[in-house]
Amino acid sequence: MRSFRACAVAVMTSALFVSGCSFDIYDVPLPGNKVSADNSFEISADFADALNVVPRSSVLVADVPVGQVESVTRVGWRARVKMRIRKDVVLPDNAEAEIRQTSLLGEKFVELSAPPPVSDSGAIEASTGRLGSGDVIPMDSTGRNPEVEEVLGALSYLLSGGGVGQLQTITSELNEIMEGRTGEIRGVLNKLNTFVGMLDTQRGDIVQALESVNGLSKTLVAEKDTIGEAIEAAAPAITVLRDQHDELVGVLTELDKLGEVGTRVVDKIKDDLVAELGHLEPVLRELADTGDSLVPGAVAAASYPFPIDAADTIRGDFANVVFKMQFKLTPISEGGLLPTTLDDLTTLCRATPAAPICAPGGDAVEQFCKVLASLPLCAAPGAAGTGQAQLGVPGPTPTDPLAPVEPLLPRPSQGSGGGGSPVDQLLRGLLGGGSS
């Protein structure tokens, strides 16, 4: 019976090798720590160094087995460990993973944990959800414990004198420096403590200043093209200044000498200058008292002898002037030019070069009225009264043809408030003047 079993095993082994079937030792199930696919989910974690972690290694949370490692693969220059853990494990999606050992020479396992507190008050780093299927823990949230070989190597280096000798030398030199200078060193440390305390109290301002510098740096980076163009545009000006360096230095030297001379002059005339300013005070006070009258008076004085409005009229040695003449078509008796009676016509005629033939009752007027007898001007003097009576002009009656010629224009009435020469009366009549 045993020989039969041995033959069967030998045949099966030969069949495996002949058929070319592969065999993986990691496919052999280990006792315990088995997580079923129906009651678990897969996550991954990236490590800089996976050490000796192999498939089927344990995954623990708070030293309690919750899953196992499914595979270890290389992704770029890091190791990706795929793990399967139970569904009832509750961890934040920013959980951390660390490779540890069960003992000094024990097996490796992966420890999953929530992130540690970030403050003394015990506040936990904010999380956005729960660790679930397909999540990947990044490499900045993973790590490992030092290996035994690393610890023993560092210990051997220390014991061989590598570090201890250096510590002894450093201690000896510090003793040499501090010997006899205890008070000075204590004072320096006190000042350093004060300085650090001041920095601590001003850390808000320091942070704000650094943020302002950061904003300025961003602005400079954003405007680097404009700054470059400005520097390139300033290059010719800098070249000119460099070429005229000696002249600029000479100008500044002479300006320094002028300043010295000016200082001496001011020192010499200081008292006289103060006195002159004192004498100027009444003048300035009077100018201030003129108030609003100063500016119009100054403008009128600046344009003397012509008014300021003549600035647009006078063009060198000639002037452009527009005269406006107004003819008042009212009866002569009212200061106008329109004759309404025979006497008004005679008066108007006497104001012309034909005055000798325009005497009252003259031939020219009589003949004119004979031809146009229907005109109101040729009405009988008694009908409407003589023009001289209406105008209040004394003189001979119209029946006296040989009476001397009186003024060329009718005189103003007694109510006009004044007289004037014949020329004034003529201009008054032509320009629309009349009795009031």
Topology:
Layout: H1 2-19, E1 40-47, E2 58-61, E3 64-75, E4 78-86, E5 96-101, E6 108-113, E7 136-137, E8 142-144, H2 148-159, H3 162-178, H4 182-201, H5 203-222, H6 224-243, H7 245-290, H8 294-302, E9 314-315, E10 318-319, H9 342-350, H10 363-371, H11 381-384, H12 387-391, H13 422-430
Parallel strand pairs: 1-7, 2-6, 5-8
Antiparallel strand pairs: 1-4, 2-3, 3-4, 5-6, 9-10
Explain what the structure shows.
The chain has 436 residues and is of the alpha/beta class. It is built from 13 helices and ten strands. The strands form two sheets. Strands 7-1-4-3-2-6-5-8 form an eight-stranded mixed sheet, with no helix packed on it. The longest helix has 46 residues, at 245-290. The radius of gyration is 63 Å and the shape is elongated.
Q: What is shown here, in short?
A:
Helix content is 45%, strand content 12%.
* Terminal Cα span: 168 Å
Tell me the radius of gyration.
63 Å
Largest pleated sheet: 8 strands, mixed
Class by SSE composition: alpha/beta
Estimate the strand proportion: 5-15%
Give me the count of strands.
10
Features:
436 residues, 8-stranded mixed sheet, 10 strands, 12% strand
